[in-house]
Design goal:
single chain; about 550 residues; alpha/beta; Restriction Endonuclease; 3 domains; five-stranded mixed β-sheet; 22 helices; 15 strands; AIPR protein; AIPR_C
């Protein structure tokens, strides 16, 4: 049976690679695929998954390292100030090998690297040259975040996954003992941390792959009022938690893809809400709370149950998260109180966006939170689609439709592409992967109706072409590819325009179908040479020196005309 599963897995991997990332090497795609399956409940985009990959030479047995704070991916520009209390930090470490078994040497490497990079007493600079830039950068991100919140006493959990094409039921006892040694190392470094180690083989990986994201959910209710294209229901808290929580006990992030307000942490409103939940009465919870609004493509009532297709919580993330926290903190399964849930059926994106704005118009929400609902993003989506590029306004929605990864561009990646190519600031694009559009000044320059719509097509085409060509390079680590990406796109744009600093109008004149792999690869060679000369690390890519070097190269090739 295990042999059959190996054959099936190999076929699925090859089909998926050809369909989604044809230029990726088989080994690199296996690591990407492993990360996708293991991290499925965290609902990461392809860019976020790729961001955490660390494989290559000197990786210490770590092919992927991801840090989550309250379920949110922690990247280098993460602001720990948003974490107030009841903080849960997950560290997920992946090792993915296409071998047919599990060996002691891999565990020995994991034991060594864990003792090194997670020992806060030892500066990471001690391990320069021992471990690659990706491993050290990920460890630095964890250290920075964890040390800044240590006084808030977060819960810390380490999850290790060793994944191969082998049989996880036939792991040699000596290898299992090594995983116990790893547990002891983590326990010595973080005595109060939880630890879990899993061996996953071909059968296990296929099982994870079969867990497709659900698009239809059931919501039990106590009472309901039915109207045209909608329902208002009183839902017991214990039934609501089943709606928003995954089988693995995590908050179901995909329900909040369209939500305009990220969870605000421990502010006064949320503290009062949690106090109301813990107090137990005498008032019912729905008397004290505005409730939750869900938009869906279809909703059908059967008895005391609503079957909801493609649900999105567009108002009430604070309420949903506090209910989730309440159930996580105590045994509350017998709680009879209710929350009010509005379910609205809306079948097109424009209607959904109007509902999002309307249901949030009476609360104090930063303008940045409503950006995904703005008309310009619908315009970009509509413009790109005929060219075979898919704008992911709702996170992972295009992926779930089966679009190739090489053809999907998220809002955040589009912002980075425009920052690199139109504003000619690839250093900022690299340094701020998750916070770029949160600054009003930058956002207004990137997503502006004054820019030609064609510029967004050119930016998307160049950055996706650069991604694909960089993935095909087995001489570059995932971190190097990430560091080079936006400089390569900026260089290629300038070359195509024959201008050191092309205007948006000039960029918009580039014919997207004329962008070739040969042009992109030529830019990779030039940018990579500069990158290596300056030190080939994160600080180089995020610093001003590499931008200055790139401008000098371009101004030499294309002198600025008077």
């Amino acid at each position: 049976m295990a042999h059959n599963d190996q054959l099936l897995l190999d076929r699925i991997l090859e089909e998926q690679r050809n369909a989604r990332m044809p230029m990726a090497t088989k080994a690199d795609f296996f690591e990407q695929y492993v990360a996708e399956q293991v991290l499925k409940d965290y609902d990461l985009s392809d860019e976020e998954i790729e961001y955490g990959l660390t494989g290559g030479g000197h990786d210490g047995g770590i092919d992927g390292l991801y840090v989550f704070a309250n379920g949110e991916l922690v990247q280098e520009d993460f602001d720990p100030a948003v974490l107030k209390k009841n903080i849960e930090v997950d560290v997920v470490i992946l090792q993915g090998k296409t071998s047919n078994g599990f060996d002691e040497d891999t565990l020995n490497k994991l034991i060594a690297v864990t003792g090194h990079i997670f020992s806060l007493a030892h500066p990471l600079t001690e391990f320069n040259g021992v471990y690659n830039e990706g491993v050290l950068s990920a460890a630095a991100t964890f250290r920075s975040m964890y040390e800044s919140i240590a006084g808030k006493f977060p819960s810390l959990r380490f999850y290790y996954f060793y994944v191969t094409r082998g049989d996880s039921q036939s792991v040699h006892p000596n290898v299992v003992r090594k995983s116990n040694d790893l547990h002891r190392v983590v326990g010595e470094l973080f005595p109060h941390a939880a630890f879990d180690f899993k061996f996953l083989g071909a059968t296990d990986l296929l099982g994870l792959a079969r867990r497709q994201p659900a698009t239809s959910f059931e919501l039990k209710f106590s009472e309901s009022l039915t109207g045209r294209d909608g329902y208002i229901a009183l839902v017991r808290l214990r039934d609501f938690i089943g709606f928003v929580r995954t089988e693995n006990g995590l908050l179901r992030k995909s329900l909040f893809e369209a939500n305009v307000r990220d969870y605000q942490g421990s502010n006064q409103v949320n503290e009062d809400m949690q106090s109301s939940l813990r107090s137990g009465g005498p008032e019912d919870f729905w008397w004290l709370n505005n409730g939750v609004t869900v938009v869906a493509s279809r909703a059908v009532q059967g008895g005391k149950t609503l079957t909801i297709e493609d649900p999105q919580i567009v108002n009430g993330q604070q309420t949903s998260t506090e209910i989730f926290n309440y159930f996580n903190a105590a045994n509350t399964e017998n709680d009879e109180r209710c929350v009010m849930v509005r379910v609205i059926v809306a079948n097109n994106s424009a209607s959904r966006d109007r509902i999002i704005k309307a249901t949030n118009s009476q609360t104090s929400i930063p303008a940045a939170s409503l950006r995904a609902t703005e008309k310009i993003h619908r315009d970009i989506e509509d413009y790109l689609t005929p060219f075979g590029l898919y704008y992911d306004r709702r996170k992972n929605s295009q992926k779930q439709l089966g679009r190739p990864a090489d053809k999907i561009i998220s809002i955040s990646l589009m912002a980075q592409a425009m920052m690199s190519i139109v504003l000619q600031r690839p250093d900022d694009a690299r340094a701020r992967p998750s916070s770029l559009i949160k600054k009003d000044d930058d956002y207004s320059k990137i997503f502006s109706t004054e820019l030609p719509i064609e510029a967004y097509l050119v930016a998307a085409t160049l950055v996706k072409a650069a991604q694909a060509c960089l993935r095909a390079r087995d001489d570059l680590t995932p971190k190097d590819r990430n560091n080079l990406l936006f400089y390569v796109a900026a260089h290629a744009a300038a070359v195509l325009c024959e201008r050191a600093r092309p205007s948006a109008k000039r960029l918009a004149e580039i014919k997207a179908d004329k962008v070739t792999d040969a042009q992109i690869n030529a830019s990779i060679e030039i940018v990579n040479e500069l990158y290596k000369r300056l030190g080939a690390n994160d600080q180089v890519a995020k610093g001003h020196e590499m931008l200055t070097g790139l401008r000098q190269i371009l101004e030499t090739a294309y002198p600025i005309r008077g």
